[in-house]
Amino acid sequence: MTLAGKVALVLGASRSMGRLFAEDLAARGARVAVHYNSAGSAADAQQVVAGIVAAGGQARAWQADLTDLAELVGLFDTVQRAFGGVDIVVNTAGRIAKMPIAEMDEAEYDALAAINSKAAFFVLREAARRLRDNGRVVSVSTSLTAATTGLYAAYAGGKAALEAYTRALAKEVGHRGITVNAICPGPLDTPFFHANAGPEAVTWAKAQAPLNRLGEPADLVGIVRLLTGPDGQWINGQSILVNGAMVAR
Fold first, then answer.
1. Active-site residue identified among 14, 16, 152, 155
2. What is the Cβ-side half-sphere exposure of residue 186, based on CA atoms within 13 angstroms?
3. Is 118 noted as a catalytic residue in this protein?
4. Residue 15 located in a structural domain
5. What domain range includes position 57?
6. 116: domain CATH number?
């Protein structure tokens, strides 16, 4: 129960990696705010809350469109009022598109930037304003920021901006004992990846890792556990690749 007394806000916590992070934070004693994006995810978010409560933890779910700044700020307001403060923010929210630069239109670019870059920036802003001393911030980026590959330029570019924001904020709030890091997964065996990857792309992605498989959301829990706990206090301002050696830097 290393996080007893702490409050954690997990953005995009209704399924996949966000759900696992929320459950693990709760298992370590944190009270968890389970964020979900749209009404279609409400039932999944309530299942996450119910599972945490059944296991003896504390959690509540709230909806917010993170691309709407008023809703994003309102979410932080609500969590602070409900739980009395915020100590940990884990942001898993993102949007992906696979297409050549020559084929991308302005609307699709703006949709990617709205969540991967702009919303990520303002999540960090609110964390900087609200986290109690010795807090923790972890954002999910992508290993594509370390790879030389086509077709994902707008997605990887938005996440590269997130990593730059991460390094800057680590310097700005580090004197308060707050750490700010990003994890950079490779391809994960989730609907998020498969929606943009056909069978050939899946086979190629598996072959890039020595274990010849895609990552699993569970592969990321340990690094988030380290970064959000007391043993992670000397890891700060980093973008940590978690991809089974698919790519390194």
1. 155
2. 23
3. no
4. yes
5. 7-185+220-238
6. 3.40.50.720
Considering its fold, how many domains does the chain have in total? 1
Q: Which residues contact 193 (CB under 8 A, 6 or more apart)?
A: 96, 187, 205, 214
- 197 domain residue, yes or no: no
List the catalytic residue out of 14, 41, 143, 239: 143
Instruction: Decide if 159 is catalytic.
Output: yes
Could you say which of 16, 139, 141, 239 is catalytic? 141
Residue 139 pairs in a beta bridge with 91, 182
159 belongs to a structural domain: yes
239 labelled catalytic: no
Residue 155 lies in a domain: yes
Give dist(CA 118, CA 180) in Å, integer.
17
Q: What residues contact 29, with CB distance under 8 A and at least 6 apart? A: 1, 2, 3, 4, 5, 6, 57
Of 20, 44, 23, 45, which Cα lies nearest the Cα of 32? 23
Contact status, residue 25 vs residue 8, Cβ threshold 8 Å? yes
Chain centre distance of CA 197: 21
For the stretch 91-136, pLDDT in tens is 999 999 999 999 999 999 999 999 999 999 999 999 999 999 999 9
* Residue-wise pLDDT tens digits, 188-238: 988 878 777 788 888 988 898 999 999 999 999 999 999 999 999 999 999
